[in-house]
Structures are given as C-alpha cells and as structure tokens.
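Predict fold of Class I SAM-dependent methyltransferase; 256 aa.
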Amino acid sequence: MSRPDWSNTSADYARHRQGFPDGLYDLLAQHGLLRPGIQALDLGTGTGTLARGMAARGASVLGLDPAPGQVAAATRLAAEQGLADRAHFAEGLAERTEQPEAQFDLVTAGQAWHWFDRGLAAAEARRVLKPGGALVICHFDWIPLPGNVAHATEWLIEAHSPHWRMGRGTGFYPAWATDLALAGFRDIAFAGFDHEALYSREDWRGRIRASAGIGGALDSPAVARFDAELAAMLDARFPPDPLVVPHRVFAIWGRA
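Predicted 3D structure, encoded as tokens:
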C-alpha cells in the first residue's frame, strides 16, 4: 500500500493534528527504549511529530518520509522548537532507507506502519539496527464509540469518501506482532493506554481535513464541501468547545 502524499494539506496536518501525548515517551523510557543520546530512525515521519518528541528527550533522530512537503514541514517545526541540532529530516522510504547497517539504537514508525510494505520495512529496520536495538511501532487513534464525536465524524467521512476503509478502529494492532516475528525480532512486547484529547472545533475540523479519507482522497472543492458539513454537524450535535475525543495509544516492539 502506498502512502498518500499530503503535501497539499501539510499546513492542516502540522497545525491541527495532535502528536503523541507525553505518556508515550514516558512509556518508552520506562521500558528502556528511549533515553538521551541514542541514535534513532523514524520511518514515515510525516511532519516529524514522533521524531521531534524523541529529540526533545535527548535522542538524535533522523526522520525519513517520501513526501517533500512533509519533510519541509518537519524541518521547519524542528527549527521552531529549537531541535534542529538533534532532529534531521530527509526524503526516504521505510523499505529502502539507504542507511548504513547496524547504525541505530532505535527505529520507530508512528501512524505509518499500515502504509508500508510491512515485511520489507521490518527487514530493513532490523538491518539498520545495532544488535539489541529495537523497532517500535506505535499508533495514536481516536476511538469511535456510539454517540461520540469520532463516531459521528467517521460516518460523515464515509458519506463523502465511500472508498475509505480505515474507520471503526479499536486502536489495537495484534497482527504487527507477526510482522516483527517474521523479520527475526525477539522479546516482542506491547503496551498502551487511553487518553482524552481535547480539540477546539477548528482544530478538529483541520485534523479531519488532513486525514487520509478527506485530504488524502478528495480534491479541494470536495474537501470544502465536507468541511462545511462537518462544521454544521458539530454545531448541531457537539456544541461544547473544546471537544473531548477519546484516543488510544498503542505501541509494540521487538529487539534485533
């Protein structure tokens, strides 16, 4: 599966999409996966949310993404956060990173594993990891429960983008354990937690405009029509501001 190029919606993607909560970095640190001074490679980095989060905690990170617009946004955001010395970004593929063998202590993929050829990406991650290094795959998903704003939004996305098949999720990805095992990773483990994300109405609309089902699938006039309907739905059914959107953080990892 090829990953969409969100270059045209990178402003919405960077401005409105929330990154992983601090609890993820605490979790990785507790399990000995993230610590100051390590060399990390972030695959499918997008606007660098995960890469910048790790750099803020002392890691030296290279983020790779095939979309030039995403790389440019990640570079700009790292500079704005004062992280340009520890977070670097370049165009590149998860399945063929062109990085040296046994170079990194940690390889990560946040919100991206489903876009890759997973078998090739796992094998490439193992190749570039030092012995004992870890591949961590993590996701931060809204949880659509009947009556909540995520559930209502998914129905609207499906009405405008009927080929979208990424809704109704639970935030758990047990199949990824098989990806790790087949690539030769050992000591496979997983962890996660639920998190209530607060979104202003504007940020939720921007978050959804930049999603795969809308910004990644529709042309600009269609996105505008969707956004108008989403705004009307929020006004009618979810008037409180900020919106409380339940999310789930899921991380799975294995050692090389």
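Confidence is low (pLDDT under 50) at residues 5-9.
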